[in-house]
Amino acid sequence: QVQLVESGGGLVQAGGSLRLSCVVSRSIFSIDAMGWYRQVPGKQRELVATITSGGSTNYADSVKGRFTISRDSAKRMVNLQMNSLKPEDTAVYYCNADFMSRDYWGQGTQVTVSS
């Protein structure tokens, strides 16, 4: 079992920055991969960024060069630094853990970017 709790969402103007954090209930290194996904009403949830237990990262093309995923193993946290935010980044952002071939999700945090 893995519990995930996100924080850090909010309202920001276009061009601004936000940092999302996800607190994980177990050692990050025991989890195959962690990631951030986002979803807007009426659309499928989409991948934003992932980081594997080995530290490899992957980003959606739409956020490359603007977002950075990182982890703090001591704090059991996975973070998403979001810079140069755009109105199209507006969504509910979810933390994800791929643990023993099962997906775990946080409750989500709203990010709203105003133009």
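(ticket continues) Second input and output from the same batch:
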Amino acid sequence: QVQLVESGGGLVQAGDSLRLSCAASGRTFSINSMGWFRQAPGKEREFVARIPWSVRLTYYADSVKGRFTISRDNAKNTVYLQMNSLKPEDTAVYYCTARISGNDYWGQGTQVTVSS
């Protein structure tokens, strides 16, 4: 089995920064990619960012491009999401996801609240 544990959420003001972390444990010997989704109240879960595990590429939603940066530490099986210039519309529960051997795994989510 695979466990994903997120951390780093919180309450901040517009314009502030936060860094989310997600550590994968368990059967992680074949990570294909890791990433982040988010879900705001009353809305569908949406893609935020993704990073493949073996190539230097990153993918972002248009809404966060230029403000958020995804990175990884392969040795620690950890993915990070640096969020700068946060806006109230970034308020959501942020979920870490990992694709491992063709299966998708999800973390429990961490709340990010941005006040105006």
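Agent notes: The CA atoms of residues 37 and 46 lie 5 Å apart. The mean pLDDT is 96. Closing as not reproducible unless the customer responds.
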